[in-house]
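Sync notes, pocket subgroup
Present: LS, DG
LS reminded everyone that the earlier model was apo-only. Rerun requested with pyridoxal-5'-phosphate included. Inputs:
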Amino acid sequence: MLEFLQQELDRLREQGLLTTIRTISSPQGAYFVADGRRVLNLCSNNYLGLANHPELVAAARRAVERFGVGPGAVRSIAGTMSLHLELEDKLAAFKEAEATSSLQSGFAANLAVIPLLVGEGDVIFSDELNHASIIDGCRLSRARIVRYPHCDPAGLEACMEETLREAGEGTRRLVITDGVFSMDGDVAPLPALVEVARRHGAMVMVDDAHGEGVLGDHGRGAVHHFGLTGQVEVEVGTLSKAFGVVGGYVSGPRVLADFLRQRGRPFIFSSALTPADTAAAIAAVDLLAGDDSLVRRLWDNTRYFKEEMRRLGFDLGRSQTPITPVMIGEAPKAQECSRLLFERGIFAQAIGFPTVPRGQARIRVMISAVHSREDLDFALERFEEVGKELGII
Ligand SMILES: *Cc1c(COP(=O)(O)O)cnc(C)c1O
């Protein structure tokens, strides 16, 4: 009965869209062992090197000794541990929000919160390049979804005017955007988007999975970066990127956290974060709140690498952050580039459709605070070699 799946896989292979999933047999770091080979790690979201940080590892170990390995139940039955509340309080202080709610992942956080804000008869205005988990959360809500042109406040306004012309007073409106776009590394123009939303009585939600730990004072995120703290109703974050662990959270007013605990489906029907994850995340928040040197290091590395790549002639698209897309075009060529880099000791993943639009395949380089200048120079040399061989530069 499932032969059609083989046909689908064959089709993906022919189009150069079959993803190679490599096996990592060491911790995440500047280098790691992938498919048995020691390679420079240019593809993880471990922006600050926290995924294998000794303080996080020690915190996780202590939590396992004290609380064991499992949460035991969904949070609303018997799965809320003191650790979860401690994490939520610390995250709220870090985000300068009234309250946060932790969930199993950033993906789950989007599925949980969007259907709480809008439902049938309401309208969501969603950036056309928003993350897949936002798209799925929007669909679950059953609200009407209007995609507005990428990072374009005037385009948003035109969409709102046209869509809302006949909308009744009671129609709830929600504007949703990534804070930093994960495949291009560009930053949403939040001040202008918030202004447009206000004019049309819309709530604003920012998913800042790639902004936290990266933008704003001590990595407080894109909203903080723009001085908009308190002016965005809802933020979604992840603990799996800069924070180095796994998990997601929603931050905003207390009433949102209270309602999410009553009606957020991933909260009430799926078990909580484990004690180890939660304790490691607490250590990550403590570390980030107390010291911004890793964030500064991340930006020093980012500026250096991107400047040198541009000097070599690479097209880095619209990137404004450590997410560095090396634009290539056709998916098979991007895969070939990634393969050649891997042979020479660099792991940088090729990304094609449907993660990015057709014809815009790229190598996505992720810069981290754990990279040394020598690591970046090594990467630059290899990129130059392979780029010339494939006629990219
Ligand atoms: C990575 C990402 C997510 C998913 O986060 P997880 O914690 O890995 O589930 C959600 N939204 C955006 C914008 C992301 O980049």
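DG: Residues 293-312 form the longest helix (20 residues).
LS: The domain at 54-290 is CATH 3.40.640.10 (Aspartate Aminotransferase; domain 2).
Action: DG to write up.
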